[in-house]
Amino acid sequence: MRDYEMVFIARPAVEGEALQALIERLHDVINAGGEVLETDVWGKRELAYPIEKEREGMYFLIRARMDPNHVSEVERTIRYTDQIIRHLIVRVPE
User: 29: which residues sit within 8 A by CB, 6+ positions away?
Assistant: First the structure.
């Protein structure tokens, strides 16, 4: 098991209960092959350049410990989630 940090940018319309539902969905996928250590919602911020015609996005960070083979499953789920416009997953150095 390795530690990972995942930063997501969701569409700005995703707020409140919709944001919580999205985070819970990601937690469920991560917990299937690991565990969520921390979730930090950074809030709505202006993007440096438009992404899919959006000028703002809801940023949030999830720190998790999971099997390296499970990362591809998490990425596949993210790709098919229309609410997320960008993501980055990096392994935390030991």
Answer: 73, 74, 77
